[in-house]
Design goal:
It contains 14 helices and 6 strands. By secondary structure, it is mainly α. The strands form 2 sheets. Strands 3-4-5-6 form a 4-stranded mixed beta sheet, covered by helices on one side. A two-stranded parallel ribbon has the order 1-2. Helix 6 packs parallel to helix 8.
């Protein structure tokens, strides 16, 4: 029993470590705590499958010894109890503990929403992964190949079973299809394990192999279930704040995010003022809220998506670089090559300023070269006084919008 408890503690430590890694990006979002429980299953489920495969391999080796052939420990009921103990310690206990900690954090800080759907998905998926490890052990002999195969298949299953998003713009995201799918995975593996155990030695491997093939096929055919396609509905008025002539509107639950969003919009407005850009007032709103209801003057809805982050900064920069003059004048949907790269070079540099830290290397684009350049320029600009930094960026933005030219050079 001590070995099983050590395994349970090991799984919980892995899950807690992953949750801490997700702390900065996921947990501040409205219901990021729930999805983070599922995301942690990438390593948790794989580790549980590998441990279960190791334990089952050891049991198979013990069952093969003549001294144990007549032992009560080889009876079917005892074996099922051992399977249940592994499911309890490698899946149920760690997931319940991690989910309870997440729920207590939500209750303590009074912000966010804890969607119980995700921990339920994770719990059932963890059970399936324990069974997966045991089925793998029935096919592959030894304590090396079986855990390795179980680990790889567990990672594959996690990647293609349920698809989620860090920015959860929903009231609730419980999906019956996702729940049914993980139940089917667990049921398939349990039936396969049961048949493999009851079969003869020659047939056991064949049954286990067919079960793993069926498992892979089921994930491939029925997986990739998206569980974030349930938008919030306007059951309550959003929280709005006016910044100069613009407005920011977020759902009531996201009110704590407003100070960071306001700071980003103020920096974007400072860039526009330095570039001499004049535009109509804009309502920057989270998805699901119609900004046109904020008044009679001209407005556009731009996504904020729940936080003072890269996505919101890109939304605030868009009117200056994309919507206002950039896209119609310098690039269009058919643009490629240098024109397209130059456009995003300008947009990314301005976005870095709006985020609030031009030397921030926590986000990247599809171009490593452009990211390296942005960080190099950003590190130089971070050393400048704020007024000089804004003036230089505004000058570059104005020149680009007028001539579609941008050298990217800066005095060191």
């Amino acid at each position: 029993m001590r070995e099983r408890l050590r395994g349970s503690l090991f799984i919980f430590i892995i899950q807690s470590a992953v949750l801490l890694l997700l702390l900065e990006r996921w947990w501040p979002t409205f219901n990021g705590l729930g999805p983070s429980i599922w995301i942690s299953m990438l390593l948790v489920g794989a580790a549980a499958a590998a441990i279960a495969a190791t334990r089952e391999s050891a049991r198979i080796e013990a069952e093969a010894r003549p001294v144990t052939e007549v032992s009560p420990r080889s009876q079917f009921g005892i074996v099922v109890l051992h399977w249940g103990a592994d499911v309890l310690t490698l899946s149920i206990i760690p997931t319940v503990m991690a989910s309870s900690v997440a729920y207590l954090l939500v209750a303590a800080f009074g912000y966010g929403y804890f969607d119980w759907g995700y921990p339920l998905y994770a719990l059932l998926f963890g059970i399936a992964m324990v069974l997966l490890g045991k089925v793998a052990a029935r096919l592959f002999a030894g304590r090396v190949i079986a855990p390795l195969v179980a680990f790889v298949l567990a990672v594959y299953a996690w990647m293609y079973t349920i698809v989620t998003s860090a920015h959860a713009d929903t009231w609730t995201m419980f999906d019956r299809a996702a729940l049914l799918f993980v139940v089917l995975l667990a049921a398939l593996l349990f039936v396969g394990l049961l048949l493999a155990y009851r079969a003869s030695e020659k047939r056991a491997a064949a049954v286990a192999g067919l079960t793993l093939v069926g498992f892979v096929a089921l994930v491939f055919i029925g997986g990739s279930i998206h569980v974030y396609n349930y938008p919030r509905v306007p059951t309550a008025d959003p929280e709005c704040v006016t910044v100069a002539s613009d407005s920011i509107c977020v759902w009531p639950e996201d009110e704590p995010l407003l100070p960071g969003l306001v700071a980003q919009l103020e920096r974007a407005q400072a860039l526009e003022a330095a570039a001499g850009i004049e535009r109509p007032s804009i309502v920057f709103a989270e998805p699901g809220y119609d900004g046109a209801s904020r008044g009679g003057h001209r407005m556009t809805v731009a996504p904020v998506e729940g936080g003072a982050s890269l996505r919101s900064a890109q939304g605030f920069v868009a009117p200056a670089v994309d919507t206002h003059t950039g896209f119609p004048q310098c690039v269009d949907g058919n643009s490629t090559g240098e024109d397209f790269d130059r456009h995003f070079q300008v947009a990314d540099l301005m976005t870095a300023y709006v985020i609030g830290d031009m030397a921030d290397d926590s986000w990247a684009t599809s171009s490593p070269e452009m990211d390296a350049w942005r960080l190099q320029v950003g590190q130089v600009l971070e050393e400048w006084p704020e007024a000089d930094r804004v003036a230089w960026l505004g000058e570059q933005l104005a020149h680009y919008n007028e001539y579609c030219e941008f050298s990217g050079e800066i005095a060191q």
